[in-house]
Fold each of these.
Amino acid sequence: MVYDKEKLLQIVKKNEETEIDCLKKLVNIPTCYDKHHDMTPIITQLTDEFEKRGYQVQTFSTSGAPVIVAEMNRGMKKTLLFYNHYDVQPEEPLDEWKSPPYELSMRNDRLYGRGVHDNKGSLVANIFGVQSAFQAGYEPKCNIRFIIEGEEEAGSIHLEEFCKAHPDLLKSDGCVWENAKAIPNQRSKFKAGVKGVVYFELHVKGFFRDAHSGDAPIVVNPAWRLVWALSSLKNEKEEILIDGFYDDVLPPKKEELELFTKYPSDEIEQYKQLYKTDKFLLGRDGVEFWKELILKPTCTICGLLTGWTGPGSKTVVGKEAMAKVDFRIVPNQKVFTVKQLLRKHLDKHGFSDIDARFLTGYEPNRTQIDNPFIQMLKDVAKDFSGKEAVLFPSAQGSGPAYLFGSHTPWVFGDVFDPESNVHAPNESMRLNELRYNTAFIAAVVTELGTY
Ligand SMILES: [Zn+2]
C-alpha cells in the first residue's frame, strides 16, 4: 500500500465539517425525478462544488434529467470513474419521518435525510475522498471522472441515450458504481455484476363481457388460459421450460464456485433473518444457495389479476386476465432473445391468443472477478476493516451498470447497516461510515495508478 491510512483519516476528520456542510446543501435540495422536482439548483450546486476543486464540468441534457460529467484530466494513463446519481426516492410516508426529509439532521452520530445514504452521501464521500488524496500530497497517478445522473431511482430512463452518445466518457480503468467502502470490524461486500431483467405483462381476453359461471362449459375462461400458459413456463423443480432459454447461459466458473465455498456462513444467516425462515426454497443452502441466487436466471410471476377477487362468492367467468412476469437473465442471455423465445413458446403451446407485452428490459453484465481493480479494492478494504471482503460475481438484482460494462470494469460496494432505511422514512448514514467511506476512496485514488 502506498498510502498512510492514519494520515488520510486525519485529513478526512479535518475536512469533516465542510464535508457535512456539502452533504447538507445537497440533501436540502429535493430531487425526486418522478415528482418533477426542479433539478437546476442541484446541478448548479454540484457544478460549483466540482469547479472549485479544479474539475471541468459539462452538463449533458437528455430527454429527461441532465447528466453531469466532472473531469479532472491530469494527463495520466489511468482513469478512475465514479458513477453516482443526484436524484432520490419519493419521501412518503411523510408522517413517519422524525425530522423533515429534505433537511439534513444529526442524531446519535447518524446523519438523517432523504438521499443521505442513497446516493448523495456516497457522492460527497467520493468528492472529498479524491480531495483528501491530493491534500495528503500523494499526487494520484490517475485522471478522475464523475458521471452523475438524475433518474436512477426512476429506472435510469434516459441514461442509455447519454451512454450511446458518449462511449468515450465511459472508458476507465475502474469504475466505482455509487459506493465502495470499508469500516473497521465490518466486512465489505462488493458486487461485480448485475443480472438483466425482462419484464412482461401477459394479457388474455375472453368474451366481450363477464359471464355467469354456469356458462363455463361454453365460454372461454381467460383465467384458466393464463394459468395453463404460466404453468408451461416453469416446473416445480424451478426449471424454465422455454426451448432454448438456457442456451446462452454461461456455466459457473471454477473460481466462482470456489469463491462460494469461502463465504462466511452468516451471509446466508442474514437472509434467514430477513425472511424470518430457517429453510429456503427447495432446501437450497451452501454453494447451491449462491449458485442459484447469483449465477442462474429466473422466471417469476410478480402479479395476477382476473375475475372476482372481492368478498363473498361471485360466480363469474371474468372477461380478461393479466399476469406480470419477470425473467432475471444472466450472461450471455439477451433481452431481445428472451422476448423472441417467450413469443415462440406461447405460440408453440397453443397460446397465440396471449398478448405478451414487453414493459422493460436491462441486459446482464459482469466484471471478471479477477480484474485487478476489484482485487485492489478488496486489499484496501481489508486494510481498513481488518476483515476479508466478500466478493459477489453479481448482484441478484438488475441495474443500469450494464450500460458501462463493455467500456470499463465496475464494482458496487457497501457495508451492512440495517438502520440505513434506504428508500424508506428516516434514511440515514452513520457518521463513522461517511468518514471511513471518504478515507477509503482517498486510498483507492492513491492506489489506482500503482497496481
Ligand atoms: Zn436507490
Amino acid sequence: MVNSFHSPVLTKEVIYYLNCKKEGIYIDCTLGGGGHAESILEKIYPDGLLIGIDQDIEAIEAASRKLKNYLDRVKLVKDNFNNLEKILNNLKIKKVSGIFFDLGVSSHQLAEKERGFSFKEDSYLDMRMDLTQKFNADILVNSYSEKDLIEIFQRYGEERFSKRIAHLIVLKRQNNPITTTKQLADLVIRALPKTKKKSWWRIHPATRIFQAIRIEVNRELEFLEKGLYQAIQVLDDQGRVGVISYHSLEDRIVKNIFKKAEKEGIGQKGYNLKIITKKPIRPSLEEIKGNPKARSAKLRVAEKIISNTINI
Ligand SMILES: C[S@@+](CC[C@H](N)C(=O)[O-])C[C@H]1O[C@@H](n2cnc3c(N)ncnc32)[C@H](O)[C@@H]1O
C-alpha cells in the first residue's frame, strides 16, 4: 500500500518472523509513519501493547494519526532507541515479547526539503533526525578537519574519491561556508577526476557522501549497536528481535551482534540467542517493483532462549 509518509518494507515477512502473540508487548524502535506498527497492532490488539519509539517528532505525530484506532494499546515515545532500557524503566516494563528496528530515514524525512537529507532539491544542509539536536550537517561540513572528513567519507560512504572531495570542501569553505545541499552536491562532482565527470549517473556521486554525513550527524551505527545490545537484554524468553537494514555497514553490525550473542551471549548470562534467518530475508521482485526503495532491504531475526527455563 502506498503511504505518503513512508511505505513500509517487508511487512508480511516482519509479521511472520516476529511471531506476534496476542497478549505480547512489542516495541517498534523506529516508528516512522507507523506502517509496521499498525501491522503488529492488527495482530495483538486489544490484548497486547505496542511501544513505538522515534527520535523524530514528525514521525511520532504522523504515527499517532495512523494508529488512532488503537491508541488505548499504544505508547508513543519521542526518544532515541539508544535509551531503550531507560524508556522501559520509565514505563515500568521489564521484559518484552518482540522488538523491531527498521533502520535509516523515512521517505518523509528524505522528501521534506527543509530536512536537508536530499540533494534532489536545494535546501539548508541539516540532516538531523532529532530536530532538538544541535549538531547538523552544516556544522560537520564546515568544522571537521580534512582528515576527519576523509575518514567519515571512507568509513561511512566507502567513497573512492574521499581525499579529493574532502580537500575541495576544506579549500572552498575558507572563502564561504558550504550551507546548502546543492552547493555540497556540486562540489562533490567538481572534485571528481575528469574521466568520472559525466552528465548522467546511475547513482549520483554525492549519494555516498550524503550517506556518510547523515550517518555521522545522527551517530547511526553507534546507536544501532547500543540499541541492539539493549534489545537483546530486554527480550523475554522466546522473544524475537527483527532488524531491517539498508546498507552493508548496518547489516554487518546486525549480523555480527547476532552471531556474537548466539555464540557467547552478550551482557547478562543465562540465555542463548538463536538466529532464525540464517540468510537475510530480501523483498520479492514484485515488492521492489511497487516500492523501489525496498531493493536494498535485508531482514534478520533472532530469538532469545533463556536457559534456566529450558529444563523446567
Ligand atoms: C525507515 S523509517 C521507519 C519506517 C516505519 N517502519 C514505517 O513503517 O513507517 C526509520 C525511522 O527511524 C527513526 N530512527 C532512526 N534512528 C533512530 C534512533 N536511533 N532512535 C529513534 N528513532 C530512530 C527515524 O527518525 C525514522 O523515522
